[in-house]
Amino acid sequence: MPRLRTPATPFARTATLRRAVHLLREFRYEQTDPARFYSALADDTAMMVAGLVSDPLDGKVILDVGGGPGFFADAFTARGARYLSVEPDAGEMSAAGLDQRTAVRAQGEHLPFRTGSVDVCYSSNVAEHTPTPWAMADEMVRVTRPGGTIILSYTLWWGPFGGHEMGLTHYAGGHRAVRWYTRKHGRLPKNLFGVSLFPITAAAGLQWARSTADAELLAAVPRYIPRFVWPVVHIPGIREVAATNLVLVLRKN
Fold first, then answer.
1. 72 located within any domain
2. Residue 169 belongs to a domain
3. Which of 78, 95, 187, 244 is an S-S bond match for 69, by CB 3.0 to 4.6 Å?
4. Whether the Cβ atoms of residue 120 and residue 100 lie closer than 8 Å to each other
C-alpha cells in the first residue's frame, strides 16, 4: 500500500496551533449561534480549498456538495470563484434566510450536472450524514473535469467529534447516545444516529480513494489539527481517533 502524502501545500502552512484553537472555540457555537459558527467555518473552508488547489480559484467553477444554508457562497465568491452548491434539505437551505440563487436542491448521490463540468468539487462535513458516502464521492469525481480537483472532508466517527452535539457519548454506541441526549435535553438531537448521522471511518475513505479508477489520490490529511500532529494519519487505528476529520484530495484523470 503506497504511503500517504502530506505535501507542503499552502493549506499545510496555515495548519497552525493558533488556527486549531480558534476553530475549537467557534465549534462551541454550532447550536447556540449557527451564523457565527458557519461563517467562521466557511472562511476556513475556502482557505483550505484555495490552499489545496494548485491554481488560483479566480474564475474557477466550484461545486459545494451539501452547501447548507448558504454561508459558504460569500467566502468563495470573495476569492473570485464561480460558486454553485447542492443541498437536499429545503429546510436547511432556508434556515438562515440567505440568498440561494446559486443553489440547487438535489442529492449528492445524484448530482444534476454534466460529467466533467466543474473545476473543483468539494464536500465539507457531509459524508457522515449520508448512508452511501462513497456513491456521493463517485458523483463528485464524475462531475469534475479532467485535471480538476476533488476535496472530500468528513468527520471521523471514532474521533471526539464523531457524535456531533451528542458529545463523547457516541463511544457508548450511537443509539444509546441518542437516548441519553433526548433524556437530558427533552428533544432528539439534530444529527440522529442511523437517520442523519452514520459511522464513517478513515479506512473506508482511503479504500475508496485508492480504488477509484477515475481519479488519483494526491493527499490525505487531518483537517483541523496542527500540522505537527499530521503524522497520525499514517497510523491505522490511531488516525480514526486522533485525526478527527479527514481530508481526501484527488485529481481527476
1. yes
2. no
3. 95
4. no
Q: Domain residues for 144?
A: 10-156+200-252
What is the CA 146 to chain-centroid distance, rounded? 22
List the CATH number of the domain containing 16.
Answer: 3.40.50.150
Average pLDDT value over all residues in the chain? 90
Measure the CA dihedral 69/72/75/80, to 10°. -110
Euclidean distance between CA atoms 130 and 108, whole angstroms: 9
Q: What is the pairing mode between strands 118-124 and 144-155?
A: parallel
**Does residue 195 form part of some domain?**
no
| 155-169 tens-digit pLDDT | 999 999 999 999 999
Residue 250 neighbours by CB distance under 10 Å: 26
Edge to edge, the sheet with strand 82-86 lists 103-104, 82-86, 61-65, 118-124, 144-155, 245-252, 215-222
Return the H-helix or E-strand segment holding 154. strand 144-155
Give the confidence band of 31 by pLDDT, cuts at 50, 70, 90.
confident
Amino acid identity at 149? T
Domain count, the chain: 1
Side chain identity, residue 49:
V
